[in-house]
Amino acid sequence: MKVITKIAEMQKEADQLRIQEKKISLVPTMGYLHEGHLSLVREARARSDVVVMSIFVNPSQFGPSEDFKDYPRDFNHDVELARSAGCDIIFYPDAQEVYPEPYLTYVEVERLTKVLCGVSRPTHFRGVTTIVAKLFNIVKPQLAVFGQKDAQQAIVIKRMVKDLNYDIEIIVAPIIREKDGLAMSSRNTYLTKAQRIQATVLYQSLMVAKKMIDAGERKATIIKKRMRDLIEQQPDAIVDYIEIVDTTTLESQTALNGEVLIALAVKVGKPRLIDNIIVRVLERTINTESLK
Ligand code: PAF
Question: Considering 110, 138, 173, which residue would you say is the last residue of a domain?
Answer without folding.
Answer: 173
